[in-house]
Each structure stands twice: as structure tokens, then as C-alpha cells.
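Now for one record:
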Amino acid sequence: MKKTHPLVSSQTEEGLKIRLQVLALTGQITEDEAHAYRVLRAAAHAAYHDGTGEPGFINQDKLTSNPEGLDTYLDGLVAESAKFKLDTETLPLMKSLVEACCAIGWPMITNPCGEICLLMLGAYCVIADVVPFHAQNDDDAEDAFRTAVRALMRTNLMDCLYSREVKRTNRIGVGMTGFHEWAYDRFGFTWHDLVDETKSQALWQTVSRFKRAVQDEARKFAAILGVTVPHTDTTFKPAGTTSKLFGLTEGAHLPSMREFLRWVQFRHDDPLVKVYAEKGYPVRELTSYSGTTIVGFPTKPRICELDGGEWVVTAAEATPEEQYQFLRLLEKYWMTGVEEDGTTALEETGNQISYTLKYDPKTVSYDRFLETLIEGQFSIRCCSVMPQSDTTAYEYQPEQPVTKLEFERIAAAIANDNMQEDIGMEHVDCGSGGCPIDFKDDEEKAAA
């Protein structure tokens, strides 16, 4: 049985205060450490009991930082381009900001989505996704990673407001999306295989092969262009939009649902509503949105079509402990990377992994939540930890999860869906890594 962390217990605030005082008086912790724990506990209490997941944590001390050349910014000229220049009134203020930044022990932050390390004075996210799932083989995938490096480094040649920081760091972020489809298609590894580092070693070594290729291409192309070798080069971004183009899971995330209805809004008098209703699509009139009718399109993520999808684990089914282990492995083999010997760490050039860890507050107690933060959150660079919310109270959900039985029943009731293009596939196609079921295509395959 796993032991509970010694600082995790359902004790009163007075009891906690006494315990921290005893630990401080006996020299086991410092006053600063006691204060830090009180802040952690207050933040965790708000995140859990308010049901928002906020505030979150970014471990600034773990973010990749290279201060080389930072002292040259003391002249204050850190936000200029060929077109825009600082005026004389603003320059003293900028100098003060630079001095404050240089005095901070950890001057790096991330962008709002959390995937790129940025200097707090200002910089840019220059990022791209590679989809190894659609590569012909590992060599083809490596070529795509190398091409992404060159494309991003060329982008950094553009004039921009923070051009000085861009020239200093030449920061880029090459990421992946559809990771779980690739893991299963290429190696046959399921979620539980991935978090077993020994069992899935072949995959993780391949991930580091791609990391080495990114580093190598960055060095070579920097020499060709006569620019700085990128300070950071790999990432995992949320990839919500780009993943929809491919119908794949988003970035490093597990699928949120196996089957669902994508509800599309129409005006109540749109003639297509009647057409879809006659063809068997679910149709509902909304009371909270006057004059609006929604039509449900049965949708299944691409990952659930690989070998029937029985092996798939959704985000709700993965434990917090498993997800933290997954993030640690991604950081080890993709953010940092290892040499061909499989163990020696590369020079650190990783950005960050943008990942939202979901938990069910009905099954995860506050004590377990707090322990998970202590044991997991501080073993990685950053992770958003959010409770799963019950959306059944809302009349309209863009995506409504359904059981496999419900999904099959709805699909069987639909004669064909050749009307889908009449409403523009860009409005309904490939949301949340899934695409509307093409029943016409299924019928043609069955007939063949």
C-alpha cells in the first residue's frame, strides 16, 4: 500500500500551523519552506474546491534558460524593429524593466498555453507540428522534423518588435501531434505500455532520434544562415486546431471521448433541418437560444478506428499518476533527449509540454489531489491540472459524449449523409480529433 506524503492529511489550519512550527523549530524545514507549503496548500484548496483548477503552477526553475547576451539589454532597447522605435520618454522605463528582469533569479516564463520558454521582457512563439503518424517510415518522419526546423528558423529572419531577443535566442519549437495514434500504429503500444518506460523503450529511443535530428538540423542551418543556434528547439503545443486537420488526438493528449455527437447550430427555419431530420439525424430545438435548432452528427475519433479501438484509454480513464509519468518521459526523451547510447542526456534545448491533466473530483479526494501535486507537479516543468466538469446541465454542448450502443443506434438510423457538404464541412469536420462518420463511404465499401 502506498504511503501518504507526510505533509498531506486532512488537518485543521491550526493543526497545520503547529506542525509547520515544529518542523521549523527542529530544523527540518526553513521558514521560507514553511511559507511555501502554506502557499501551495492554499492554492491547491482553491483549485480543488472551487472546481476551476486555478491557480496553476509553472516551475520556473525548471524552464530552459540561457542568459548569454542578456546584459547587453541594459541599454533598454529591447522592443524595437526597423519600423517601430522607442521614444525618449519610454527608454528610461524600459531600462528599469531590464534591470528588474536581470535581478530576478528566474527570468523565464511561458506563453499562455505553456509550450514555449520566453524571456519575460517579451519574445515570440515560433512553433510547428509534425505528424509522424502520417509518415511512410521513421526516415520520412525525421525528414519532416528537419524541414520544420528550417521553416521556423527562416521565420525568425523576419523583422519584428522583439527582433533583438529573436536574434539572441533564435528560439523555435518543433512539436508533434497525433502522438498516441503514432505510438500504436508504429509500435503497437497502448497507453499503459507508454508509461512503462522499460516496455516502451523502442518508442522512446525513436523519439530521441527525432530530438537529435532537430538539434542537428538547427546547428547546421544556423551555420548556413549565419545566425545563432536556437536556444530551444522542441515542444509539445496544445495542437487543437492543427490536429483537427488530420483527425488525430491533440498534441500529447489522450482522446477525450470514444464516440460523441457533434451538435451543429442552424436557424430554425433552415430547410436543411428538415432534410437532416428525415434522414435520421438527431434534431433538437433549443429553448435557451431562441430560433436555433441543432443537428447531431455521430463522430468517432480516428484513434478509435485503429484495430477497433478497444485498446484506447481516454483522458478520463488515465490516472493522474500515469499522466505525470507520461510527462516525465516526454521531458526526458523529447524535451531533453538522449544520445544514441540511450542514456546520456543531450545538451538541454527543450521548451515545454502544454498538457492538461484531467481528474474526476468524484473519485479523486482532496488529499489525493494535494499529494498528486506534491509528488507529480514538481517533478516536471509545467502541467495544467483541471477537474472534469459535468456539462449535462447545459442545454447545448458542441460535443456530447454518447455510449457505443447509443452511437451505433444513431448511426443505424441514418440512411446516408451525402448532405453534409451542403452546410460546409469546415463547420463540422474533424473537431476534437474526430471526423463525422461517412456512412456513404461505409455503404460503398460494404457493397464492394
